[in-house]
Amino acid sequence: MRILIDNFTKTFGTTTVIRDMTLDIESGEMLALLGPSGCGKSTTLFAVCGIHRMNGGRLLFGDRDVTTVSSQDRNVGVVFQNYALYPHMNVFENISFPLKIRKESKADIDAKVREMAKLVHIEDLMERKPAQLSGGQQQRVALARALIRKPDVLLLDEPLANLDAKLRLEMRSEIRRIQQETGITAILVTHDQVEAMSMCDRIAIMNKGQIVQLSSPSEMYNEPASAFVAGFMGNPPISFLDGTVEGSSLRLDQSSIVLPLPESSRPASPASRVKLGVRPEYFQPENPDKVEGKISFIEIQGRETLYDVTLENGAVLRSIQSSGPLHKLGDTVRWGVDHSRVLAFDESGARL
Amino acid sequence: MRRSHLLGLGFMTPAILLTLALFIIPVVLTGVFSFTNMSTSTGITGGAYEINPRSIRLMKDAGLREGLIGDLEENLYKIDAAGLAQVEKDFGKKLAEEMKGAYDGQTFKDRRELVRAIKDLKSRPRSSRDLNKAADLFQKSILNVRYDDESAFLNGLGNLGITLQDGEQAELTRFAYTGWVWTTENFSNMAAMPSTYRAAFNTVLYIAFTLTFNIVFGVFLAVATFYLPSAAASTFRTIWFLPRILPHVLYVILWKWFTWDTGFLSQVLEPFGVAPRNWMMDTEINAWVSIVLINGFVGASLGMILFSSAIKAIPSSMLYASEVDGASRLQQVRYIILPQLRWPIMFTSIYQTLSLLTSFDYIYLATDGGPGSSTTVWALYAFKTALNNYGGNLQYGFGAALALVLVGIGILASVLYLRLFDFKSMNAAPRIEQ
């Protein structure tokens, strides 16, 4: 079902957390609300499920305006960060709770719960209490409970935050599988860009109560609209170099280093200030535009090695290389920047 | 023993001493007293020997020889030196010497016999009034005469010429003894007295009603205040907490003002044609409702605080989840909140059962166990028997026996509760991780 958040405004007391936000989520789409903590992503989620009242704007589920509908009548499924399973009920009772509340017949409930348990692979756990389940199993139960009454939209609030790294990988694909099998519209709230990129069709990246960019994961990575988005997407993160334009090149502050600017993003006025974003994978030994620096940090990640290279003006460039650790801390290196893949931003952080 | 152990022991010492002084020693003393017949009349030190109407009655009940009891009850007339000296003073030396010569040492069964004997003497008084008066000077009785020890008592009996048959001496001495003795009579009496069963029944009734009211009302207040805005909720809770922090006497006086025949309730109801009455003491049912409410409002405030904090401890996401799952407020209370109050409710029930078992202060202040003894619970019954008897004879021993039963039930119930609710697991180390 298509979800439309139209000119949504949320205030707490005198503080406006979200102002005039508009977001259109297509039917069957899984969309990530991504952003640092405090950006308003969870507030948006709570407004969609009706726990928080909207202070302005409209919320549409399909053609139905649910702005003033209570959360009880809204037909949303929510998976909370801590799963919020009812500790005094066993798995079966937890999953069947939304149906029991609606006073559905016992046989109906039984059939639906079995079906749902099969979907999320927890058929054998029905008699257990939540305390007897692992984090991943609790997650599955929470998903089943959220999906059991076929909600219009599935809301996931940092669903993977409480899992260990291995389970997180597993559940990432599981949640995506279940979402695709049920064809449900889903909103995922997360601060982890890897999660957002790997699970969702589109990402809405938020900052200070605003959506700063809404696009597909690869577009967001390759064509970030601002320095904030570029900095948020990618791990290890992008490094930024500040400088002043000299013709078609950029002279880095307090240094003799001059780097060519990408053709597509020449600034309008000469001598203007520009911030250059260089992702670690585009700062490599074989690239043409060499920059000299000293290795100031090495992080061995197994398959790859991450180097921090400190330039003469103190700026740091990161390089990620798939060869083994060939260099030592303190080595002076001359590696090149791939200027066609460099991202240029103006002083306000907007993409040039 | 390591130094840290000593330190622990040091920290424990005040608690151990307090427990000893305020619990162990009183309980032991209660146990000791409960096997005595101590009362106001026996005193708590040793006693004297005395034949008095009460001991006569007891002897009759015990079936002592009729003749002996008769002798003890009768006044005797014995001619002795003291009597003769008094006669010499009142009636002259002549009569005294004549009586000494004729009857010295003799005992007369009653006054008529002695008067007849005096009449035989030459220097007898002329009027029968004087004769009676003279005879009275020799009147002797063991009744109400206190002897400090057993030999003096037996001596006194001998002086009066009361003869004892074999085996009677020990029994008589026992009945004459006015001090306290060791006995198990308290317990057999307790089992035989209907007032005991009434008190036991009242106690069960009192605990059942008050506890139910406490829990139900406490849960209601906690749930109601949970859904109020926080400022209103804390105001509300403070108001409901007032009875607990009010001095007991003041609190009960407020209730009395409220229920007196010229009090608030009567005044308010008067325009509606309800005759003014003492709403607290009018009937037994009124008295019961009053003491349950008086205790209940105080008890409910404790429940309210405990249950409120327990509700607050429920993660808010769980309540959100239930709302999103479609649960209305009532369903939320029934399916999410109440099940999670199970432990606090159990704890409060245990705690309040035990404290209600021994508490009688509000009842004492409000109805004093009345009307009649309809609201006299066991603890009040024990208190009144031992320490605050209307008749004035405080039965320390019997009261202690009553109290001992209460102590026994309390300890038994505590052990049972601890077993039942698995106190160890309640005290288990908290699991911080999920």
UniProtKB/TrEMBL annotation, chain A:
Signal peptide: none annotated. GO terms for cellular component: ATP-binding cassette (ABC) transporter complex, substrate-binding subunit-containing. This is Carbohydrate ABC transporter ATP-binding protein, CUT1 family. Keywords: ATP-binding, Nucleotide-binding, Transport. GO terms for molecular function: ABC-type transporter activity; ATP binding; ATP hydrolysis activity. It comes from Roseibium suaedae. Its main location: membrane. Gene3D superfamilies: 2.40.50.100, Nucleic acid-binding proteins (2.40.50.140), P-loop containing nucleotide triphosphate hydrolases (3.40.50.300). It holds the Pfam family TOBE_2. It is a peripheral membrane protein.
TrEMBL record, chain B:
It is a multi-pass membrane protein. It is found in: Cell membrane. The keyword Cell membrane applies. It comes from the Bacteria. Residues 200-417 form the ABC transmembrane type-1 domain. PROSITE patterns: ABC_TM1. The chain crosses the membrane at residues 204-228, 240-258, 285-307, 343-365, 396-418. InterPro entries: ABC_transporter_permease (IPR051393), MetI-like (IPR000515), MetI-like_sf (IPR035906). One of its GO terms (cellular component) is plasma membrane. Coiled coil: none annotated. Signal peptide: none annotated. One of its GO terms (biological process) is transmembrane transport. Keywords: Cell membrane, Membrane, Transmembrane, Transmembrane helix, Transport. Belongs to the binding-protein-dependent transport system permease family. This is Carbohydrate ABC transporter membrane protein 1, CUT1 family. It comes from Roseibium suaedae.
